[in-house]
Amino acid sequence: MLRSLTAILSGYILINVLSKLLTLTIFRSAVIGTGVALGQIAIIFACAFLGGFATAAIAQVRMSRHVALLAALYGLMAALSGYASAGIAPTWYSIAVVISGLAGIALGGRYRMNLRDRNEIETTPLG
Fold first, then answer.
1. Dihedral over Cα of 81, 83, 87, 90: its sign
2. Which of 32, 73, 77, 93 stands 20 to 30 A from 118 (CA)?
3. Cβ neighbours around 32 below 10 Å, total
4. pLDDT averaged per 10 residues in sequence order, the chain, 127 residues
5. Which pLDDT does position 107 carry in this prediction?
């Protein structure tokens, strides 16, 4: 139970902290516009990939369930954030943040599961 909670919260915190740090570092003096928004979406995707990977790696068992719970938590929080920023940020940006984050989480988790599966196949004795 504690490992499950740690896996999901670690992935979520990694996504949020890392994406904020990268955004502030890269776009510190940039003028807000479409280019910056697309850059932020790319950063969110990359950080979500790492978050999904980390969640699956920490979980070790039932990885897909843990990654799905991370995706549900992220999707809920991103949707609420998009709703709260209605009128401030364009609607397409709020939708793209949710979609890119969910895609990143799913791909990162899947990548970690594929690594695990390949390692199990390679280390299984023949016979």
1. positive
2. 73
3. 10
4. 90 94 82 80 96 92 92 94 83 92 96 83 43
5. 96
Backbone angles phi, psi at 89, to 5 degrees: -100, 150
Query: Which pTM was predicted?
Result: 0.86
Q: Which two tokens stand for residue 63?
A: 């990885």
